[in-house]
Amino acid sequence: MGALPKKKVSRARRGSRRAHTHLATPTLMNCPQCGARKMTHHVCPTCGTYNGNQVLRIEDKPREAN
Ligand SMILES: [Zn+2]
Q1: What's the rounded Cα separation, in Å, for the pair 58 and 45?
Q2: How many domains is the chain partitioned into structurally?
Q3: Ligand 1 centre and the CA of 13: distance in Å?
């Protein structure tokens, strides 16, 4: 048999451990080019620029999802 816990973990202790278990809200900023909300350190999905450079070609019509 492998290692086993000596004592049952109480509900309070288990809850305290899980208090930090949650998803973080993504940090958003306004794009300096187009002003849309975008994630930091990511290419803007609206205008396709990063750090003032055009890195993505944004098509006018959004592509149909297959
Ligand atoms: Zn943008």
Answers
A1: 8
A2: 1
A3: 45
Q: Could you tell me if residue 34 is inside a domain?
A: yes
Structural domain boundaries enclosing 52: 27-59
CA 14 to centroid of ligand 1, rounded, Å: 43
Task: Convert the pLDDT of each residue in 26-36 to its tens digit.
Answer: 999 999 989 99
Query: From ligand 1's centre to the CA of 18, what distance in Å?
Result: 37
CA of 42 to the centre of ligand 1 (A): 10
**What are 11-63's pLDDT values in tens digits?**
999 999 999 999 999 999 999 989 999 999 999 999 999 998 998 888 876 66
Query: For residue 20, is it within any domain?
Result: no
Residue 18 within any structural domain of the chain: no
